[in-house]
Model the fold of this input.
Amino acid sequence: MDIRVATPQDWPAIFPFWSAIVEAGETYAYPLGAGSDEARALWMEEPPGLTVVAVEDDEVLGSAKMGPNRPGRGAHIATASFMVNPAARGRGVGRALGEYVLDRARREGYHGIQFNAVVESNTAAVHLWKSLGFEVMTTIPEAFDSASRGRVGLHVMYRKLP
Done:
């Protein structure tokens, strides 16, 4: 599996799984029914942010976007979001993207990485981020309206970078 910077030519491969994940209503608070152009504007980062794809045999297995969590005096803390094509789950794509983001954030001189909204019922993601050294700093109760569970909490997770 290779991880590389996403290009505009990757978007047609990203959008179907981006849309399926958002429409499932379990992990992201992006607008339901977003068309390709609206979704692209939400996912494909402009500098200083960056969007990457995990690719194997010319197939896009997943994507991540990253950049400063806040502008100005908060720009020393990174943030990131991840999506794995449901057809590629269980193949280590999320872990590979997470490790890539950690390495890149270190190289770019960030002090830490903050995830602002990890849905607490997304146990696979919570487990992955904890295994990569993230801690749950707080949970905002009932901050996410899960399609299957109703209102559940959102974790704010953080990891300091050496």
The longest helix spans residues 93-107. The mean pLDDT is 97. The chain is about 30% helix and 35% strand. The helical segments are 11-24, 36-43, 93-107, 123-131.
